[in-house]
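PT: before anyone asks, these are the final sequences, not the draft ones from last week. 1152 residues across everything. Please model them as a single complex and drop the result in this thread when it's through.
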Amino acid sequence: MKPLSRYLPILDWGRAYDRGALTNDLVAALIVTIMLIPQSLAYAMLAGLPPEAGIYASIAPILLYAVFGSSRALAVGPVAVVSLMTAAALGQAVAETGADYAAAALTLAALSGGMLLAFGLFRLGFIANFLSHPVIAGFITASGVLIAASQLKHILGVKASGGTLPEMLAGLFAALPETNPITLAIGAGATAFLFWVRKGLKPLLVRLGLRPRLADLVAKAGPVAAVAATTLLVAGLGLEAQGVAVVGAVPQGLPPLAMPDLSLVLVTALLAPAALISLIGFVESVSVAQTLAAKKRQRIDPDQELIGLGAANLGAAFTGGYPVTGGFARSVVNYDAGAETPAAGAFTAVGLAVAAVALTPLIFHLPTATLAATIIVAVLSLVDFSILRRSWTYSKADFAAVSATILLTLGFGVEAGVSAGVAFSVALHLLKTSRPHVAEVGLVPGTQHFRNILRHKVETDPAILTLRVDESLFFANARFLEDMVQDRVAEGCAVRHVVLMCSAVNEIDFSALESLEAINLRLKDIGVGLHLSEVKGPVMDRLKRSHFLEALNGRVFLSQYDAWIALCGGAPARAA
Amino acid sequence: MKPLSRYLPILDWGRAYDRGALTNDLVAALIVTIMLIPQSLAYAMLAGLPPEAGIYASIAPILLYAVFGSSRALAVGPVAVVSLMTAAALGQAVAETGADYAAAALTLAALSGGMLLAFGLFRLGFIANFLSHPVIAGFITASGVLIAASQLKHILGVKASGGTLPEMLAGLFAALPETNPITLAIGAGATAFLFWVRKGLKPLLVRLGLRPRLADLVAKAGPVAAVAATTLLVAGLGLEAQGVAVVGAVPQGLPPLAMPDLSLVLVTALLAPAALISLIGFVESVSVAQTLAAKKRQRIDPDQELIGLGAANLGAAFTGGYPVTGGFARSVVNYDAGAETPAAGAFTAVGLAVAAVALTPLIFHLPTATLAATIIVAVLSLVDFSILRRSWTYSKADFAAVSATILLTLGFGVEAGVSAGVAFSVALHLLKTSRPHVAEVGLVPGTQHFRNILRHKVETDPAILTLRVDESLFFANARFLEDMVQDRVAEGCAVRHVVLMCSAVNEIDFSALESLEAINLRLKDIGVGLHLSEVKGPVMDRLKRSHFLEALNGRVFLSQYDAWIALCGGAPARAA
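LR: through. Structure below.
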């Protein structure tokens, strides 16, 4: 790939752009635009921002991602989980620093964009690997529950606050007597309607003769219908006078060019949340992009994705938006509607700009309960507690990480949840590797293959103790190694040779080297040889740079079979 | 081992105690007592506490360790690094909470003791493994430098403060004009004398006909001579009137029984420092104990050591002391002087109790400059920058962890240094495992052994791609695995079978399982089989609990040779 198109994927696909692709992209853009208008308003509300911020966050970011991103179908903009994390981050930072809420949102987007861009340029995309799959699954599920709970106040028409599930539920319970019945009727009705659209409308349309894909797209327009119907209802009956909360006046016009506030105190307060938002946004976005790319046998470059998302977030920061990422729902709609290139995204941006200029007066009477309903129905598809059952069956350690992530996210908020999930995964992994599986092995008769004496019928020799350590040797298990060899040798008095079979040893770090030196000295003192077999190339290269091999009271064998032949003297004693 | 003596090692050695052991223990106790008096005073000064705290911290803790500890030679009491960490922890906590300094020292010892005891009872000693050898070495070296620098103010006779090297040096530089010349003369003289005792006295005594071991013990009494000489000098010439700082009045009597202040605010402030002190104290103590035990073929039980150290610290907390641990210098003296059992420690405690009752008036005129000199000479033996060179040669990752630990300890203090060292070791380890070494392997001719095609002359078959992944498969490299297999298959168009040789795969966690499922599906789509070979028992057990093996588009082979024979159809094509 050429150097410039490496950073500007647009040069790749732009060259081959033709009328067929243009038509497909225009159709996809129209459909996505219609779907995005209510979604953008709703997610802005979830983030605690005025509705126009959601629209603005969908315009410049989409355009910038179209230039820099590597996925052809990804649709970038406000998404549910990142909006929730934005609300949590801004709530705390504003309380601490006294900054303006909407201005802090720009700072957050700028920080997140800068981090993503820097990580992409330095090719650090692999950092996202530290989030294990079950931790992500647990976090997304718990976030879905939190988001749905946070919207119940709009459905009830009451005031309540809180960033954790117990706080939200307590707030709702206390506010229950002030429920506005008309708001509740609109909210519950919209929720029921949207559920039906999702579950019942598509089969109905298919039975009425629509092609399944078209039926699916029509069903995706359900939120628009709900928005239109409830807005007309509120406007027509003057329900605002009855206490129904509405969106109200939204500025009419293109996104404003604004410089984010980069004062030290605000940046310091938002640095850690921005890092978490970037991490989660990146992981979510890349998994959506890879799922869609695999269907068309296209490749996603995670580092280029970082650059694309970084540019998108910087775009949001300078045009009145807030942190954005590639969303699952919008990307799937874009893909299903036939989008062929990122140009579809650009056309969507134009559509949304038109909406920002022309359509905002129409949503004055839109009830917030309807927006809450669209959020609730959208996020409940994120909630999937089956990860608990699946991880329990397979691995208790993974189950522990998932449970901790879910409980901490619900009980202490999104930032605590995702941090704990990462810390838990890492700690459990180290714990497992600190007490590795060690097998005493013997020769499988008639082969040159060595296996665990406890699991297979093998030949052994009482003078030779062959231990296969099933783990890289590093600081977390260096002391374990010392103790283990000492104990095993103490058990078998006839042992004259200890062979460490290193087929599973992928690294020997400095701590483990010191432990091996100690083991070698102790065995030498009692007249027992220490040998290594099947040492891998990279490990051997490193050992050669130390003095260990010179001091070794034994040999290094290419294969365990060579060690067996050499140490047995050709006449192995048979044993169970 | 019986249940009770498991927790009370005293029942083991106490039963066999005889007159020979008693004599040896008494001699050792006398020598250690003489050495400990100046050392205890000095380390208390280093911790910012009154001198008697050092003596008290050597009495009850030694007795309790004798009952609960598993090492026969370890001498427990105040040590340099833990004293420095105590000063750092107390300085900050007192500034934050307004607590009394000496009272907070008791709280710190109580917290540390409680943690050590709890970790021992739950057998969590392996947590200390997360400190890699080079990080410990770097931390001890940097602490030695910090400690020596912190004592220079006493040598100069000026006031200065600071917990980091730049702060200390700046403070000293600013205070230089106020240097007290008589104090400087005493301090510099004592330092020079003690260096000579350490380097020159022993050879001299040996030449005069003393046995080397006895010469060594006489040399160890050097600090006592320095203390006596300078005390007499100050008292005789009335140098306090010239501004020479002295120890002053020290309460005469046995350690006071005192209840530590366990108020929530103080406990909260000291919790994290107590954890770090416990960790460092435990690691230092266990490595001393294991070094000495190995010489006599005795075993150290790390979990029992936690219990012994926990009891010792709780003892310190209730008798006017501060956090203690097993010290290198005092343990080696104890061992060299012939101590056979922990009873030697008990006799030392009696000796120190006598000193506390009878000798404290004698040290009224002891100049603090002399104590500073004993500290400086003692800690400079901890400083060993060769770890930088040794780790550089062997592994850049270990070198990075050591350098970060040293720089952060010097620049930001002990707590930042050791925390960063642990975090750095863990992060670098994950980084390495997230991009594992993957070798394409082939059959070594004439054997059943498979090795890297790039390093060995081996047979391969273009239809079979055998990849040996040299790492456990887990969340940090799950995505890497997906990308790697996809790339390798895309390169070789003739490939019909992919064999993952799992001899080095010690674990497949839930994230990696999902990645393997994804790889299996993708390969199936393009008509390529996915096989596994040499899967270890524990890994196979777990895979059987998932649906992966049912969905696998291929087979699992016991050995790579079996896979080769089965997939080649018995007729391998020869290639380089």
